[in-house]
Structure prediction request, 453 residues.
Amino acid sequence: MTDLELLSAYLDNQLSPKDRAQIESRLKTDSKFQRTLAELRAIKTQLRALPMVKPPRSFTLKPENIRSRSAFNWIPILNWSTAVAAILFAVVISVDLFRAPLIARVEFAAPMQAPAPEAAMKAADQQTPITLTPTRTPAAVSAVSTSTALAAPNVGGAVAGAAESPKVATPAAQALAPAVRSTQPATDQIATLSPTATISSPTHTATAVVIVTPVSPAAQESAASPLRVPQIILGSILFILIALSLIARTWK
Amino acid sequence: MDEPALIQHAQRGDLDSFNRLVMEYQTPIYNVAYRIMGETDSAADATQDAFISAYKNIKSYRGGSFKGWLMRIVTNACYDELRRRKRKPATSLDALTDLELNPDSSDPQLTSHAESPEAHAERIDLARAIQNCLNRLPEDQRMAIVLCDVQEMDYGEIAKAMRVALGTVKSRIARARAKLRECFSHHAELLPAEYRLEGKP
Prediction:
């Protein structure tokens, strides 16, 4: 303790007998110490001598006064609700962030699980009711490939499989191949998000067509961010609660 | 009716009994608020809030000094009022300006029919100078020194009222006195000769 703290506590009788004796001993010899004590005592005396201020009015309570003042206090509830909403929001965001690497792993693992191109083509051939003829123009074949893919994914797979097969390397099939390949960038993207991606392969365009056709843009959106709706709802609730808390504090 | 009986009745919801307690203690409670807040309006608000809070929580009173219990409540009310002031600093500055420029509005009390006009004026000046010094203290130190030297509460009661450790009370009071000592040295001419400080620390 500093000298000032010691003297202040001494003045208020807050020292132990031992400390008090030490102070009194020093006071006998130290004039500066004595003067400081006198000044502190003067301050204490002046404060105690301050006149009592007359209250400007009576503070007795009236029933209506208590009723109006005892209105429900929303501030603690708002504070707690805001805290809970913030925690939930953080949890949802965290879950979303943790899911992203998980999806990336699935994407990486998908080609490894894909069947060999030959096996896939064989399976597709067994389900293929379509035959391609050289009489069709390249444009017509391209249209057929698209329409069949939209109508029946398995059929689309067969068409694409035919496009890669040397046995059916007809002009029509050759014309079809670029059309199928043109869907490749989209299919690569979708394959990572669809359960059917396990049968896809970057080198096998047949399955790629199968996947791209059933996935609508809305479905892609929801698949890319499955927690978007909870995030928006919780974020909105959090924003509203923070605004209400600030308003309540301002008007308190 | 004695105080314990009034408290018991108030605890059963008797507002008249509680109001008799209010009339008994409103002057010291208002004075604490006034010395802490430094101006009349905020002090009145804090005092009213304190009595409303006391009535609503009187069932939690478990004996001991009723005045000390009220002091704790008014201290908290002053804390709340000061926090409100911080959020609205313009109000605070207005209040301080009002205190310094309009002394008659700040000290409605100091009326004694026994003293001369000169003595009364001197006493007003001194009280105002002391209050200005108090207002310059940090809030925590101001509360501690007001409870100790104006209300003459002991350190234990102050520690309870401010909800801090005894050592904290001790250091806050010492620091407050050190700052008051310096502030008083600028108003030496106002102090009575026997209490006049001899110089700056």
In short: Residues 110-201 of chain B form a domain with the Arc Repressor Mutant, subunit A fold (CATH 1.10.10.10).
